[in-house]
Amino acid sequence: MKPQNDQRLSDHVALGVLTRTFPPEEVDRVLVETGRQQQRSRLLPARLVTYYVMALALFSSQGYEEVMRNLVEGLAWESGWRQSWSVPSQPALSQARARLGEAPLAELFARCCLPLATHSTPGAFWRGRRLVGMDGTTLDVTDTPANVEEFGKPGSGRGSGKGAFPQLRLVALAECGTHAMFAAAMGPLARGEVALARELAPRLGPGMLVFADRLFCAHPLFSFLAATGADLCWRAKSNAVLPVRTRHPDGSYASELVASDDKATRTRVTAVRVVEYEIVDVGRPQAEGTRYRLVTTLLDPEEAPADELAALYAQRWEFESALDELKTHQRGPDVVLRSKSPEGVRQEAWGYLCTHYAIRALMADAAGSSGVDPDRISFTRSLNAARRSVRAGLGATTATLAVALAGAIAEICRQFVPARRLRAAARVVKRKMSKYKVKRAEHHAWPQPTLMLQQAVAVLGAGP
Question: How many helices (H) does the chain have, and how many strands (E)?
Fold first, then answer.
C-alpha cells in the first residue's frame, strides 16, 4: 500500500516473518518498561534498533550498513513518506546500539520465548512430561581490552598460554522436540556453567523432565533445581558416591545425594534413584566397557522404568543440534561476535538467541501444519526463508505478515529432511590444532550401530 504522508519509513521496518514472534507492540511495551524508549524523534528509533540487533544475528556475515539495507530495501521508495530516509553510517548505528543496551533484548527473550511443543509434537513428551535439555557453550567475542577484562580468555597449552579470543559463557534450556531455547544465562568465562545454571531455575517447573550431563550432577545444583518441581535425569560422574539403599526389580536402586560438607550432620540429603546401564551393540565400539549412571528424581520404577530412562537419556544430545544451528548455520563457523564492548556483546548474544527462537517457532508451525516431526524440517531452508522475508520489506501490518507466513511455511515444507538413520562417527578432526585426535584413514570406515538404542540398553542389576 502507498504510505500516508504523516508516516515515517522507520516505523514500518520489521523482521519479516519473524516479526510474529516479536510483534511491534510487544517491542514497544518492553522498551517503555526497560526505560529505553527514545525521548525525541530520531533517525534510528528504539524499535528499529531492536529489530536491527536481531537482524545482525540473521545476517551475521554482513557489515553494519548492509544489514540495515536488508531491513529497509523493500521499503526503499521515498515518495509518500514524511521525509526521506538514508542508511545511517556505522558509527551512528553503533551509538544507537549503545543507547539501547542489552536489557530490551534480554526481556524480549524472557517474555516471548516460551516452550513451543504440544502433546502432538513427535519426540517432545514422554509419559506426559516435556523433555528439556540443559547444557552450556562458549562464544568467541572480539579481542578488545574491554572484552578481555570482562570475559577473559580460555587457557591454551601453546604460545602465551591464552586462547586467541575472549569468550562469553552461555548456559541454556532447550526443548528436545523442537530445539527451541526458552531460557538462558550468560556471563564471563571464569563463571562456571554450574553457577549460571542456577539462574535458569525460574523457567523450570512441574511437568518437565530435564536432562543434563555429568558436569552439572552435584548436590547443591541438583537439589536446587529439583525444588522447582521439575523432574531431573542427569548422568553422574564416575567418582560420585551413590550408596545402594533399596534395589528395585527393574535394576535401578534408591540412593541419595549428600553435600560434601554435610557428611556428618546429614541435614541436606536429597533422595534419588539411580539407573546403571551399558550399551551392548557391536556397532558401537566406543561404548564398550563404559558404565553409565543416571541420577533421577523419578523415584517410582513403575512410573519411570529404568530401561526407558536409559534409552531416553540420549535425547540430551538434541541440545547439541540446537547449538550447531546457532553457532554453525546461523552465526557461521568460526565467526566472532562483532561487538567491541561487553554490553554490546551481551546485547548481540541475546539477539542471536531471539532470532534462533523465532526461526524455530517458524519451523514448529511448519511441522505442525504438515503433521511431521520437527526434525524433518530443514533449519538452513527455514533460515534462508526468514532472510528473504526480511529483504522483501513486508512491513509490520498483520494482514501482510499472515500472507507472507503462509508462503514461507509452504516453501519450507516443499522438501523435508530424510528421516534419521542409525549412524555413528569417530570423535576426530581434520585440523591438527585441536583436543581431539587427528582423522586418519581408519576413521572413514567407522563401525555403525546395528540396534536401536532401546534394544542396545542393558540395565545392570535387572532380573531375568
Answer: 14, 13
